[in-house]
Amino acid sequence: MEWQQLEYFQTTAQLEHITRAAEALSISQPALSRSIARLEQELGVSLFERNGRAIVLNRYGKMFLLRVNRIMKEYQEGMREIAELTSPQYGEVSLGFLHTLGPQLVPELIRQFRAEYPHIQFQLHQSNTQTLLDRMMNGDIDLCLTSLRERDTPQQIRWAYLRSEELFVAVPVGHQLAERGAVRLDEVGNEPIVSFKMGYGLRKITDELFQQAGIQPKVTFEGEEVHTIAGLVASGLGVAVIPDFQGIDRSQVSLLPVEWPLCRRNIGMAWTEGHYLSPAAEQFRQFIVRHFDTISL
């Protein structure tokens, strides 16, 4: 059974006349009659009662037409949805981002973008770097805002640098270092460490910073979000290396700049090379590049 046969049947059933149906479909009457005959042969029943060129659906035809109408409606709606999703003005962007980028950066980017493209919709996915990259390579996510380094980037991932963020040593207020203007990372080498869970980009970065400082960190607690880490630090459960983040209670936690080693992380946008980006997603990718005036690596 071919799709064209269903179209021919639907039109013929609606017009109940071979000649008019053939004219509407821009085919010859014999070609239309042969198509209907093949369809009936495949179904094993007649669909019409014939009276010359005029035809009327029988009970089998009426039942089958209901199904065909549903199929055709689903097809047309699918075509419409795809057209909307692939329209640069009416499409959809599937965006992944780190928890730490959720409160400020992502809402601001979307707000500014939708001022130019108000009809584009977003699907938002918030998780750790590895999960986001896995989902992006599987095609579930168009673009990721995450922390990456070029040496950690899988071969099929394209990466555009957006900005660099300073990382601070967080200590509870009242800690012996809390009033210092800056510290060396090795000064907290004997402290219990509150860190991020394995698989999080910040965990990999901080582990490497500790290694660079000659520290074997004693990780006593692990969290998933900066607020959780900062709360554990405020409770006196250890110190941490985190970015400055809106909502951290500075009356409970002191954030100290690090003199050595250089404690920063790069924030960038990633996408999968060779994967299709809808016009809407490509518009958003270019918008972010323009917004940060970035250079793709």
UniProtKB/TrEMBL annotation:
Positions of the HTH lysR-type domain: 1-58
InterPro entries: HTH-type_LysR_regulators, LysR_HTH_N, LysR_subst-bd
Protein name according to UniProt: LysR family transcriptional regulator
Swiss-Prot/TrEMBL keywords: DNA-binding, Transcription, Transcription regulation
Highest taxon of the lineage: Bacteria
